[in-house]
């Protein structure tokens, strides 16, 4: 009888040890919750006001809960305001939106790209989490012929994670700019270079949707990604694990912003929106030897690789494992974030 109790106790201890990473993540505390309600029922009526309330140099997680509704404003999480958890009441119920574009005649800052300045939502801080909320740039929502760069979200901090979020735009929807980022079960739509930047990111179970009109510029394809790795020694690359690519029009899986661009699709379901060539060399020109564009184990009518560009990379099992394993972006920081 005593032996049975010991065995049971050992089993419980082993189970707890196995569950510890998940329990540790789930129990990561927030120091306080700030509520945003556009109708006045919370602490603030705008998201930016709530962000501004977080003290500079913040080191304890603060939840900013944004109640259902559309918030028309540009929001920036400054570099000095880390450890913010921004959550909505569902990406279909809660959104931050703005109509801005790279050519707008409202620029005051000259030290950064007009494309970057067009962003509805900008994260400059390390240690940031968003969940159950949508980010929209409405500039090209209807007119996709006279299009312009119009960013919905710019992500530049390190250790940034997004869960069940949505990103809506057309050209340059999501600027995945710098740092290590994790996107889980997110919805991202656009038509031209709509996931672009230099970051090192995993897109886990995300839905990628082309909203390119079928007749756009004589049916010229758009591009889902434009990765910009500049040097061989630079970290960076977009890895899509699971999820799907679908929508309207025609899309390249990616085009090379710079000669070391890195994009991998792993076990992604692809509709016929993907063009047979798959990829475009763009700024890499004729020298694509250092471009790492690859597909591994993908399914669906768009995954047929018989018509792909000849320079698409064939990765070894070890190379694939290195890219798709969570250690590619995570050295433990994901377990230290609240969800």
Automatic annotation (TrEMBL):
Highest taxon in the source lineage: Eukaryota
Pfam families: Pectinesterase (PF01095)
Catalysis performed (reactions): [(1->4)-alpha-D-galacturonosyl methyl ester](n) + n H2O = [(1->4)-alpha-D-galacturonosyl](n) + n methanol + n H(+)
GO MF terms, alphabetically ordered: pectinesterase activity
Keyword Secreted attached: no
Matches recorded under SUPFAM superfamilies: Pectin lyase-like
Keyword match Hydrolase: yes
Pathway in which the depicted protein is active: Glycan metabolism; pectin degradation; 2-dehydro-3-deoxy-D-gluconate from pectin: step 1/5
EC number: 3.1.1.11
Keywords of the record: Aspartyl esterase, Glycoprotein, Hydrolase, Signal
InterPro entries: Pectin_lyas_fold, Pectin_lyase_fold/virulence, Pectinesterase_cat
Any one GO biological process: cell wall modification
Domain Pectinesterase catalytic residues, every copy: 34-329
Residues in the signal sequence: 1-26
Family: Belongs to the pectinesterase family.
Function: Acts in the modification of cell walls via demethylesterification of cell wall pectin.
Protein name stated in the entry: pectinesterase
Taxonomic source organism: Hordeum vulgare subsp. vulgare
